[in-house]
Amino acid sequence: FYDKVNGEFRFTLDVAATKENTKCIRYFTETIDALCKSWDNEIVWCNPPYGRALGKWVKKASEAVGGVVVMLIPARTDTRYFHDYIYDKAEIRFIKGRLKFGDSKNSAPFPSMLVIFRNL
After folding, report:
1. Which tens digit of pLDDT belongs to each residue from 61-71?
2. Which letter does DSSP use for residue 94 in this model?
3. Apex CA 69: angle with CA 63 and CA 72, to 5°?
4. Residues 6+ apart with CB under 8 A from 106
5. Cα–Cα distance, 28 to 74 (Å, whole number)
6. How far is it, in rounded angstroms, from Cα 117 to Cα 120?
């Protein structure tokens, strides 16, 4: 899935990675705290933590300037962050079916979407 999306965007920065799972040469880990770093002028891949702080990640993505941020997140259209930062403000691509993450044998228990902020 990532390879197909990267083929379209050619990401320069992975903002929610570990050394073991990063998708880009340049990346931020939990210890670097991507929410405090600039994402400006980058083509960003963001598969953020799916906890209560997800809205902070979406807000940060919406504020980056001079580039593109592509987020893979749960398709939760009932959330405040969806209506505040995504709906009518970003491109949304709903993903058919349920994704499998890593080597998991089970699919995610939720639908997913790509949210694309083109902050050029």
Report:
1. 999 999 999 99
2. E
3. 115
4. 100
5. 21
6. 9
